[in-house]
């Protein structure tokens, strides 16, 4: 299907921050500025690291004063792992299959590929707690939408790096903030999330790395990335269970190349209302209105008319 001149113009407009912010996202930007909230000391540090590098590491202990939601999250995920143990063992057998282009056989989404958005679930409530949502909104400088949450179980494999295990960046919005919470210890052998510091649009690469196309997506090898961003500027998110990684995935990143041990983590994703991401949630017929404005906007359906 051909792209019309109007659609080309719209796409181009989203690439310029002023147009993206004050054209496509005017209402959430102004509303956020009128109701801005102070970040905690650790929240401010995370925000500063995000602005400077595009990625920031913290932990449950440092960021969350109240850890009851984390404890509830770990309990729920333990139940998921137990309930799906037989299915996980069956999928582990095909984890090294490289023939299915566009399919991450090394990774399982425990909530399914399109989870139902449930504000009452621990997966939504964890993402919408103030320390996390405030960092997302502060990074964007506007109210953001919660576009995805899930639990990923990544298998240890021996096949060549492929799919998201190679360097790439997400293209659906001007900024795309993902929050990863490690639910197992993640060292070099468990495929840590890795980020090319400074490759996000708040700074921008001086040039694009060489790449090849895999399943319609541009991918780069370590050598290709090193020619643009030196290896010493790669940030490997290694840490124990309870580590939290915030990353603007509009910058170059990779992860999941686990070799000796599996990786288990929860993740959620925030975008602007102007994101061109496909809808990753199944929306229920009705959503209970939340009293908090930021959380209410975060849960709103991007394909319906919404007033902040």
Question: What would you call the shape?
Answer: globular
Low-confidence parts, pLDDT < 50 over ≥5 residues?
none
Structural class: alpha+beta
State the fourth-level CATH superfamily.
q2cbj1_9rhob like domain
Q: What portion of the residues fall into strands of 2 or more residues?
A: 15-25%
CATH topology: Jelly Rolls
| The number of domains | 1
Strand tally is: 11
Question: How far do the termini sit from each other?
Answer: 35 Å
The CATH class, by name, is Mainly Beta
Question: Biggest sheet, in brief?
Answer: 6 strands, antiparallel
H and E string: HHHHEHHHEHHEEEEEHEEEEH
Taking all Cα atoms into account, the compactness measure Rg is 19 Å
Helix content: 25-40%
Summed up, the helix count is 11
In the CATH hierarchy, what is the architecture at level 2? Sandwich
Describe this structure in words.
The protein is α+β, with helices and mostly antiparallel strands and 308 residues long. It has one domain: q2cbj1_9rhob like domain (Jelly Rolls), CATH 2.60.120. The chain contains 11 helices and 11 strands. The strands form 3 sheets. A 6-stranded antiparallel β-sheet has the order 1-9-4-11-3-2. It has a 3-stranded antiparallel β-sheet with strand order 8-5-10, with no helix packed on it. The protein has a two-stranded antiparallel sheet with strand order 6-7. Helix 4 packs parallel to helix 9 (130-140) and helix 6 packs antiparallel against helix 8 (122-128). The protein is globular.
């Amino acid at each position: 299907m051909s792209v019309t001149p109007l659609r080309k113009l719209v796409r181009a407009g989203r690439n310029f921050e002023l147009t993206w912010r004050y054209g496509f996202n005017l209402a959430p930007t102004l509303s956020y500025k009128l109701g801005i909230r102070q970040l905690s000391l650790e929240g401010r540090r995370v925000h500063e690291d995000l602005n400077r590098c595009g990625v920031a590491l913290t932990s449950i202990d440092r960021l969350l004063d109240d850890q009851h939601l984390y404890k509830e999250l770990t309990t729920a995920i333990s139940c998921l792992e137990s309930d799906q143990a037989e299915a996980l063992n069956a999928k582990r057998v095909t984890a090294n299959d490289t023939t299915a282009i566009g399919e991450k056989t090394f990774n399982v989404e425990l909530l399914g590929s399109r989870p139902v958005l449930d504000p009452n679930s621990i997966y939504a409530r964890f993402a919408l707690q103030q320390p996390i949502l405030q960092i997302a909104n502060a990074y964007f400088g506007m109210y953001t939408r919660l576009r995805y949450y899930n639990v990923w179980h990544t298998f240890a494999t021996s096949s060549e790096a492929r799919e998201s295990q190679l360097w790439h960046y997400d293209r659906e919005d001007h900024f795309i903030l993902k929050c990863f919470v490690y639910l197992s210890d993640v060292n070099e052998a468990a495929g840590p999330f890795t980020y090319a510091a400074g490759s996000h649009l708040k700074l921008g690469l001086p040039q694009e790395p060489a790449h090849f196309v895999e399943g319609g997506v541009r991918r780069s090898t370590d050598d290709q990335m090193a020619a643009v961003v030196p290896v010493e500027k790669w940030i490997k998110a290694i840490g124990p269970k309870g580590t939290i990684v915030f990353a603007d995935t509009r910058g170059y990143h990779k992860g999941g190349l686990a070799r000796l041990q599996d990786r288990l983590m929860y993740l959620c994703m925030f975008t602007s209302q102007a994101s061109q991401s496909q809808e990753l949630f199944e929306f229920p017929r009705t959503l209970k209105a939340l009293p908090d404005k930021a959380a209410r906007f975060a849960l709103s359906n991007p394909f319906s008319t919404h007033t902040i």
